Each structure stands twice: as C-alpha cells, then as structure tokens.
Amino acid sequence: MIDRFIEGNKKWRENEFTEQREYYHALASQQKPCVLWIGCSDSRVAPERITNAKAGQIFVHRNIGNIVPRYDWNFASVLEYALNHLKVKDVVICGHADCGACKALDANLEHDHYIPFWLSNAKRAKEQIDSRHPAPTDEAGKKARMEEIIKENVRIQMEHLKEYPIVKAAVADGRVQLHTLYFDLDTGELGTID
Predict the structure, then answer these.
(1) Gap between the Cα atoms of 148 and 133, Å rounded
(2) How many structural domains comprise the chain?
(3) Based on the domain organization, do 19 and 64 belong to the same domain?
(4) Among 3, 21, 34, 42, the one annotated catalytic
(5) Active site residue 94
(6) 3, 13, 25, 40: which is the annotated catalytic residue?
(7) Is position 102 annotated as part of the catalytic site?
(8) Is pTM beyond 0.85 here?
(9) 56 and 14 belong to one structural domain
(10) Catalytic annotation on 96?
(11) Quick check: is 99 catalytic?
(12) What angle do CA 21, 1, 40 make, to 5 degrees?
C-alpha cells in the first residue's frame, strides 16, 4: 500500500509540483496560512480537498470527532502557534456527516480504553439532543438525530475553544474570527452551522 502513495507522490511531483514550482519553492521557506482548521481525522474529509485549497493556505489540526479538548497540551500548542506565530485570521471547527466519533457515543465500547475517555469531550452533545427529542424509531429519524448530535458537538467544541485565554484575547482584539462548519458527505456541500 505504501508503494502506491510513493508512486502517487512521484506523479504529483511530475505534474503539479513541476507546473507550480515557484509557488512550492516559496512554501519551502515559510508558510502563511489564513485559517486554523480543526477537523475530524476521518479519511473522507481532508480540508484541503473539500475546500479546493492550495498547499499552505490551511493550518490543520485533526483528531477523532473534531474535538477541542480542555487543557490539552497538544491542542493548546497548535492553537498558540497558529494565533501567535502564523497570525491566522480565522479558526474553523468543522464537523461532518456520518461521523464515527459521534456514532460511537451510542455504542458500547467496553473493550476500548482510549476512545471512551476521548469521547467524554463530546458526550454532552448526545445528552443535550436526547433531552430535547424522543428517541426516533425510523431510519430517517435516526439519521436526523445523528446529524443534530454532530452539529451540537461542533457547537460544544466551539464553547471549549472560547475558554482558551489566547482565543479570548484574539477575539477581543479583533485578530481572529471563529466559525462552525458542517460537511455533508452525500452532497459534498460545506456550510455554516447556526
């Protein structure tokens, strides 16, 4: 399988990299992304592909469930670097349809050690949706419920993001804007979440 990716890299170098040599040469010495994108690790939602962005435009932090954990050194380091050093102007949290992390909130993960702990950061999304609506019994209702949980998770992660002092300061100073997005796998549409 890795040979396939190495061959793909060879084709990319022969085509795009060669055709846009000056652009990639400039990127070799510095990056100036305009956005920090917090997204899910899901292989179907690579931010550069779904936004048609060029290399160097998006600074990306991905994890299972597009989680913004409270008091996490890894996440805080990415955030600090993006805001203080790269000077991004926008921060996005993007959820997506058919999110395995959100579906796992309904699953019995008794044999897993790390995933349930990680998903405790998203548990409130399921609890809030379930407290507002009765459990659906038909497939369309179950799909709609899951979409609501996924979007509620993005909203909750945005609440977590706003708790970081560096974000509070950047928003107060007008240095950064915050955005919540949702990607629909069926339609390919990317849109804002209310």
Answers:
(1) 10
(2) 2
(3) no
(4) 42
(5) no
(6) 40
(7) no
(8) yes
(9) no
(10) yes
(11) yes
(12) 75
